[in-house]
Amino acid sequence: SGRHPDPLLLMAIRTNAWRTLGFYPDHGPRLWEYPVVAKLIAEQLPIGSRLVDVGAGTTPLTPFLTSCGYVVDTVDPSPRQRNWPPQSDWNEWGFLDYGKEGLAHRSWNCTLDKLPAKAMFDGAFSVSVIEHMPAASRRDLMAECSARIRPGGVVVLTVDLIHGRDDLWNRNLGVEVEDPTFHGTFQDVVAEGAEVGLELFRDEIVRESGDDHVDIGLLAMRQTTVHQVQ
Description:
Oligomer: single chain
Radius of gyration: 16 Å
Number of helices: 6
Helix content: 25-40%
Largest sheet: 7 strands, mixed
Shape: globular
């Protein structure tokens, strides 16, 4: 806790997680990511803003932000369905209907591009998701995030990086995603965001995050162009 940027916020999120989910990921980077993402959103967007958690899985962040007064939708296409009440074998993977339990506005068991065209948001966040996707799919998702965010809104992303390097983590459930030559780097994600109108206003890389294999990359971007959702 002595190294953490906001140990009190971490405690609040963990307390809320155990009350609502009975679960907090047993993974060192999440101790840093969730509070930092929550604080960024609170600094950039007023209470009542509409948010989308992209690739939510089983996360304490959506219930916490909902308890703070944000209107949060979750999007996750996972075929693995998790059913209430919380179970002792839960991990970060799988679709969970937060809306059903009043822990989100609505939960969508699909990809972001499958939402109705009228579904627009003030902000989007995604914790350790895009690095698990092939580069082409990642770029498509970045474009879709930009298209779904109102001008001036924010997109906050965290990514796992190969320890000691800026290369994106290239595995998904232990399986290599694609040829490392094509998978990309932290700087590639910054450039990909800029190409679709997401202007970087904060970036950070955290080394020695409590995991021997990964470091953490943080990107906070602002929507600067108007896109039409098809």
